[in-house]
Amino acid sequence: MVISRQEGTVAASAVSIMLIPLIAGSNILFDRTLNKLSIDFDLSAKALTKPARALKSIDYKPPNRGAPSITTAGGARLRPATEIQDGGERTGTIPPPCSQPLVVFLVPQSHAGQTVSGRPTFFWYVSDPKVKTVEFNLKKAGAKESIFSNESVDIPAAGIIKLKIPENVPELTEGQDYVWSVSSVCVDKGVVKKRVALAGITRVAPTSELTKQLASAKSESDRAKAYAQQGYWYDALEALSKAADAKPEDPSIVEDFYSLLKQVGLDGVVEQVRQQS
After folding, report:
1. Rounded to an integer, what distance in angstroms lies between the CA atom of residue 131 and that of residue 102?
2. Which residue in 74, 81, 85, 86 has a CA-CA distance of 20 to 30 Å to 98?
3. How far apart are CA 65 and CA 76, in angstroms?
4. Does domain 17-270 have CATH number 3.30.70.260?
5. Buried b (16+ CB within 10 A) or exposed e, 105-124
6. How many Å apart are CA 125 and CA 161, to the nearest integer?
7. Rounded CA gap, 18 and 157, in Å?
8. Is 262 helix (H, G, I), strand (E, B) or coil?
9. End-to-end CA, the chain
Protein backbone atom coordinates (compact mmCIF):
# COMPACT_ATOMS: atom_id res chain seq x y z
CA MET A 1 0.00 0.00 0.00
CA VAL A 2 1.39 3.38 -0.97
CA ILE A 3 1.59 5.75 2.00
CA SER A 4 2.91 8.86 0.29
CA ARG A 5 4.07 9.97 -3.11
CA GLN A 6 5.56 13.39 -3.77
CA GLU A 7 7.66 15.18 -6.33
CA GLY A 8 10.23 17.88 -5.90
CA THR A 9 13.29 19.44 -7.41
CA VAL A 10 16.87 19.54 -6.22
CA ALA A 11 19.53 22.08 -7.15
CA ALA A 12 22.20 20.74 -9.52
CA SER A 13 20.37 17.51 -10.31
CA ALA A 14 17.96 14.89 -9.12
CA VAL A 15 18.72 12.23 -6.57
CA SER A 16 16.77 9.12 -5.75
CA ILE A 17 15.87 8.52 -2.12
CA MET A 18 14.95 5.09 -0.78
CA LEU A 19 13.13 4.69 2.50
CA ILE A 20 12.52 1.54 4.53
CA PRO A 21 9.72 2.76 6.83
CA LEU A 22 9.65 1.89 10.52
CA ILE A 23 5.89 1.31 10.68
CA ALA A 24 4.05 -1.72 12.02
CA GLY A 25 1.62 -3.54 9.78
CA SER A 26 1.74 -5.68 6.71
CA ASN A 27 2.75 -4.76 3.14
CA ILE A 28 3.47 -1.14 4.04
CA LEU A 29 5.61 0.81 1.59
CA PHE A 30 6.77 4.38 1.39
CA ASP A 31 6.92 5.34 -2.27
CA ARG A 32 8.57 8.69 -2.79
CA THR A 33 9.58 10.36 -6.04
CA LEU A 34 12.17 13.11 -6.09
CA ASN A 35 12.43 15.07 -9.35
CA LYS A 36 10.52 12.38 -11.24
CA LEU A 37 12.76 9.55 -10.03
CA SER A 38 10.85 6.86 -8.14
CA ILE A 39 11.98 4.96 -5.10
CA ASP A 40 13.25 1.60 -6.23
CA PHE A 41 13.47 -0.35 -3.01
CA ASP A 42 10.29 -2.05 -1.77
CA LEU A 43 10.09 -3.80 1.59
CA SER A 44 7.10 -5.29 3.39
CA ALA A 45 6.77 -5.43 7.17
CA LYS A 46 6.56 -9.20 6.90
CA ALA A 47 9.98 -9.31 5.28
CA LEU A 48 11.42 -6.96 7.89
CA THR A 49 10.34 -9.18 10.77
CA LYS A 50 11.40 -12.53 9.28
CA PRO A 51 14.05 -14.21 11.51
CA ALA A 52 17.57 -14.29 10.14
CA ARG A 53 18.63 -17.52 8.46
CA ALA A 54 21.25 -19.67 10.14
CA LEU A 55 23.48 -19.79 7.08
CA LYS A 56 24.66 -16.75 5.18
CA SER A 57 23.74 -16.78 1.51
CA ILE A 58 25.84 -13.66 0.93
CA ASP A 59 29.36 -13.20 2.27
CA TYR A 60 31.23 -9.90 2.35
CA LYS A 61 35.00 -10.22 2.12
CA PRO A 62 36.78 -6.92 2.86
CA PRO A 63 39.22 -5.72 0.20
CA ASN A 64 42.87 -6.59 0.71
CA ARG A 65 44.32 -3.09 0.80
CA GLY A 66 46.58 -3.51 3.81
CA ALA A 67 45.79 -2.19 7.28
CA PRO A 68 42.59 -0.12 7.57
CA SER A 69 43.35 3.55 7.04
CA ILE A 70 41.99 6.15 9.44
CA THR A 71 43.34 9.13 7.51
CA THR A 72 44.80 9.86 4.11
CA ALA A 73 47.99 11.78 3.49
CA GLY A 74 45.87 14.92 3.38
CA GLY A 75 44.37 14.21 6.79
CA ALA A 76 40.92 13.11 5.61
CA ARG A 77 39.31 10.31 7.61
CA LEU A 78 38.10 7.32 5.63
CA ARG A 79 36.69 5.18 8.42
CA PRO A 80 33.24 6.20 9.72
CA ALA A 81 33.36 9.10 12.16
CA THR A 82 31.09 11.76 13.64
CA GLU A 83 31.75 15.43 14.38
CA ILE A 84 29.73 18.11 16.18
CA GLN A 85 30.16 21.45 14.40
CA ASP A 86 28.94 24.99 14.95
CA GLY A 87 26.73 26.69 12.41
CA GLY A 88 23.48 24.76 12.53
CA GLU A 89 20.43 26.70 11.32
CA ARG A 90 17.26 26.89 13.39
CA THR A 91 14.24 25.06 12.05
CA GLY A 92 10.51 25.24 12.72
CA THR A 93 10.72 22.27 15.08
CA ILE A 94 12.97 21.47 18.01
CA PRO A 95 15.96 19.48 16.68
CA PRO A 96 17.04 16.28 18.43
CA PRO A 97 20.00 16.37 20.86
CA CYS A 98 23.52 16.23 19.43
CA SER A 99 24.35 13.35 21.78
CA GLN A 100 22.00 11.08 19.85
CA PRO A 101 23.33 9.11 16.83
CA LEU A 102 20.97 10.70 14.31
CA VAL A 103 22.57 9.28 11.16
CA VAL A 104 24.32 5.92 10.86
CA PHE A 105 26.09 5.11 7.60
CA LEU A 106 25.50 1.63 6.20
CA VAL A 107 29.20 1.03 5.60
CA PRO A 108 31.99 -1.15 7.04
CA GLN A 109 33.16 0.17 10.40
CA SER A 110 36.84 -0.77 10.02
CA HIS A 111 37.73 0.39 6.52
CA ALA A 112 36.65 2.48 3.55
CA GLY A 113 34.25 0.65 1.27
CA GLN A 114 35.04 0.16 -2.41
CA THR A 115 33.01 0.65 -5.57
CA VAL A 116 33.49 0.04 -9.28
CA SER A 117 30.79 2.58 -10.10
CA GLY A 118 31.61 6.04 -11.35
CA ARG A 119 28.40 7.30 -9.77
CA PRO A 120 27.75 5.11 -6.74
CA THR A 121 24.75 4.93 -4.45
CA PHE A 122 25.01 5.80 -0.76
CA PHE A 123 22.91 4.31 2.04
CA TRP A 124 22.38 5.55 5.59
CA TYR A 125 19.97 5.10 8.47
CA VAL A 126 18.06 7.95 10.13
CA SER A 127 17.04 7.04 13.68
CA ASP A 128 14.94 10.03 14.75
CA PRO A 129 11.73 11.23 13.03
CA LYS A 130 12.62 14.78 14.11
CA VAL A 131 15.29 14.78 11.40
CA LYS A 132 13.44 16.41 8.49
CA THR A 133 16.29 17.37 6.17
CA VAL A 134 20.01 16.61 5.91
CA GLU A 135 22.90 17.95 3.88
CA PHE A 136 24.90 15.56 1.68
CA ASN A 137 28.45 16.23 0.48
CA LEU A 138 31.00 14.25 -1.51
CA LYS A 139 34.63 15.39 -1.76
CA LYS A 140 37.98 14.06 -2.83
CA ALA A 141 39.91 13.02 0.27
CA GLY A 142 41.78 16.03 1.63
CA ALA A 143 39.94 18.52 -0.61
CA LYS A 144 37.87 21.47 0.60
CA GLU A 145 35.49 21.77 -2.33
CA SER A 146 32.67 19.28 -2.90
CA ILE A 147 32.33 17.50 -6.22
CA PHE A 148 28.64 16.99 -5.41
CA SER A 149 26.43 18.41 -2.68
CA ASN A 150 22.77 18.65 -1.83
CA GLU A 151 22.05 21.08 0.98
CA SER A 152 18.48 19.94 1.61
CA VAL A 153 17.78 16.23 1.22
CA ASP A 154 14.22 15.76 2.44
CA ILE A 155 13.73 12.99 5.03
CA PRO A 156 9.99 12.19 5.21
CA ALA A 157 10.39 9.64 8.03
CA ALA A 158 12.97 7.70 10.01
CA GLY A 159 14.39 4.73 8.14
CA ILE A 160 17.01 3.70 5.60
CA ILE A 161 17.74 6.33 2.97
CA LYS A 162 19.35 5.84 -0.43
CA LEU A 163 20.92 8.57 -2.54
CA LYS A 164 22.50 8.07 -5.97
CA ILE A 165 24.96 10.49 -7.55
CA PRO A 166 23.21 12.07 -10.57
CA GLU A 167 24.30 11.68 -14.17
CA ASN A 168 25.41 15.30 -14.62
CA VAL A 169 28.14 14.90 -11.98
CA PRO A 170 31.56 13.77 -13.29
CA GLU A 171 32.37 10.14 -12.55
CA LEU A 172 34.61 9.25 -9.63
CA THR A 173 38.22 8.58 -10.59
CA GLU A 174 39.62 5.07 -10.28
CA GLY A 175 42.19 4.82 -7.50
CA GLN A 176 40.96 8.01 -5.83
CA ASP A 177 39.81 8.13 -2.20
CA TYR A 178 36.70 10.19 -1.45
CA VAL A 179 34.92 11.27 1.73
CA TRP A 180 31.14 11.61 1.91
CA SER A 181 29.20 13.21 4.71
CA VAL A 182 25.65 13.73 5.92
CA SER A 183 24.94 16.69 8.23
CA SER A 184 21.87 17.07 10.42
CA VAL A 185 20.80 19.88 12.75
CA CYS A 186 20.93 19.11 16.48
CA VAL A 187 20.88 20.89 19.85
CA ASP A 188 23.77 20.90 22.33
CA LYS A 189 23.04 22.61 25.68
CA GLY A 190 20.48 24.87 24.05
CA VAL A 191 22.75 25.79 21.12
CA VAL A 192 21.84 24.73 17.59
CA LYS A 193 24.71 22.87 15.93
CA LYS A 194 25.35 20.30 13.22
CA ARG A 195 26.09 16.62 13.72
CA VAL A 196 28.21 15.46 10.78
CA ALA A 197 28.70 11.79 9.90
CA LEU A 198 31.61 11.00 7.58
CA ALA A 199 32.93 7.91 5.80
CA GLY A 200 35.28 7.03 2.97
CA ILE A 201 34.74 5.45 -0.42
CA THR A 202 37.29 4.45 -3.05
CA ARG A 203 36.60 3.77 -6.70
CA VAL A 204 38.66 0.88 -8.03
CA ALA A 205 38.84 -1.03 -11.29
CA PRO A 206 36.96 -4.35 -11.34
CA THR A 207 39.13 -7.44 -11.07
CA SER A 208 39.08 -10.10 -13.76
CA GLU A 209 37.41 -12.47 -11.30
CA LEU A 210 34.61 -9.98 -10.62
CA THR A 211 34.08 -9.42 -14.34
CA LYS A 212 33.85 -13.18 -14.82
CA GLN A 213 31.33 -13.61 -12.01
CA LEU A 214 29.17 -10.72 -13.21
CA ALA A 215 29.10 -12.16 -16.72
CA SER A 216 27.61 -15.40 -15.40
CA ALA A 217 25.20 -13.74 -12.94
CA LYS A 218 21.56 -14.44 -13.72
CA SER A 219 19.98 -11.90 -11.38
CA GLU A 220 20.71 -8.80 -9.33
CA SER A 221 20.96 -11.06 -6.29
CA ASP A 222 23.72 -13.01 -8.02
CA ARG A 223 25.46 -9.75 -8.86
CA ALA A 224 25.19 -8.63 -5.23
CA LYS A 225 26.83 -11.85 -4.05
CA ALA A 226 29.64 -11.42 -6.57
CA TYR A 227 30.28 -7.84 -5.48
CA ALA A 228 30.24 -8.81 -1.79
CA GLN A 229 32.56 -11.76 -2.27
CA GLN A 230 35.07 -9.60 -4.14
CA GLY A 231 34.94 -6.76 -1.58
CA TYR A 232 32.85 -4.14 -3.40
CA TRP A 233 30.58 -2.97 -0.59
CA TYR A 234 28.67 -0.12 -2.20
CA ASP A 235 27.90 -2.12 -5.34
CA ALA A 236 26.64 -5.08 -3.30
CA LEU A 237 24.09 -2.91 -1.47
CA GLU A 238 22.95 -1.25 -4.68
CA ALA A 239 22.53 -4.61 -6.42
CA LEU A 240 20.39 -5.86 -3.52
CA SER A 241 18.30 -2.70 -3.82
CA LYS A 242 17.68 -3.50 -7.48
CA ALA A 243 16.97 -7.13 -6.62
CA ALA A 244 14.30 -6.07 -4.13
CA ASP A 245 12.75 -3.84 -6.77
CA ALA A 246 12.61 -6.77 -9.21
CA LYS A 247 11.22 -9.19 -6.61
CA PRO A 248 9.54 -7.14 -3.85
CA GLU A 249 7.82 -10.18 -2.32
CA ASP A 250 11.04 -12.18 -1.86
CA PRO A 251 12.02 -11.92 1.85
CA SER A 252 15.40 -13.59 1.22
CA ILE A 253 16.63 -10.42 -0.49
CA VAL A 254 15.87 -8.33 2.58
CA GLU A 255 17.60 -10.92 4.75
CA ASP A 256 20.68 -10.72 2.54
CA PHE A 257 20.64 -6.95 2.98
CA TYR A 258 20.46 -7.36 6.76
CA SER A 259 23.13 -10.05 6.68
CA LEU A 260 25.57 -7.67 5.01
CA LEU A 261 24.88 -5.01 7.63
CA LYS A 262 25.53 -7.46 10.46
CA GLN A 263 28.76 -8.62 8.86
CA VAL A 264 30.22 -5.11 9.19
CA GLY A 265 29.04 -4.45 12.74
CA LEU A 266 25.66 -2.82 12.10
CA ASP A 267 23.61 -5.26 14.18
CA GLY A 268 22.08 -2.35 16.08
CA VAL A 269 20.55 -0.86 12.94
CA VAL A 270 19.05 -4.21 11.96
CA GLU A 271 17.62 -4.74 15.44
CA GLN A 272 16.10 -1.26 15.56
CA VAL A 273 14.42 -1.73 12.19
CA ARG A 274 13.05 -5.12 13.24
CA GLN A 275 11.77 -3.87 16.61
CA GLN A 276 10.03 -0.81 15.17
CA SER A 277 8.38 -2.59 12.25
Report:
1. 8
2. 74
3. 17
4. no
5. bbbbeebbbbbbbebbbbbb
6. 6
7. 11
8. helix
9. 15
Helix (H, G, I), strand (E, B) or coil at 236: helix
Tell me how far apart the 2 most distant CA atoms of the chain are, in Å: 57
Tell me the whole-structure pTM to 2 decimals: 0.76
Tens place of pLDDT for every residue, the chain, 277 residues? 121 222 222 333 334 444 443 322 222 222 332 232 223 333 333 333 344 444 579 999 999 864 334 444 444 455 566 666 665 555 556 788 888 888 999 999 889 999 999 999 999 999 888 898 999 999 999 899 999 999 999 998 888 999 999 999 999 999 999 999 999 988 888 888 888 999 999 999 999 999 999 999 999 999 999 999 999 999 999 999 999 989 999 999 999 999 999 999 999 999 988 776 6
3-state class (DSSP) for residue 255: helix
Distance CA 137, CA 148 (A): 6
What residue type is assigned to position 166 of the chain? P
Q: Which residues pair with 187 in a beta bridge?
A: 97, 192
Quick one: the chain helix, strand, coil %, rounded to 5?
20, 30, 50
221 and 215 Cβ atoms separated by less than 8 Å: no
Q: Evaluate whether 17 touches 126 at the Cβ level (below 8 Å).
A: no
73 half-sphere exposure, CB direction, 13 A CA radius: 2
The domain limits of the chain are 17-270
How far, in Å, are 11, 82, 143, 224 from residue 194 at the CA level?
21, 10, 20, 34
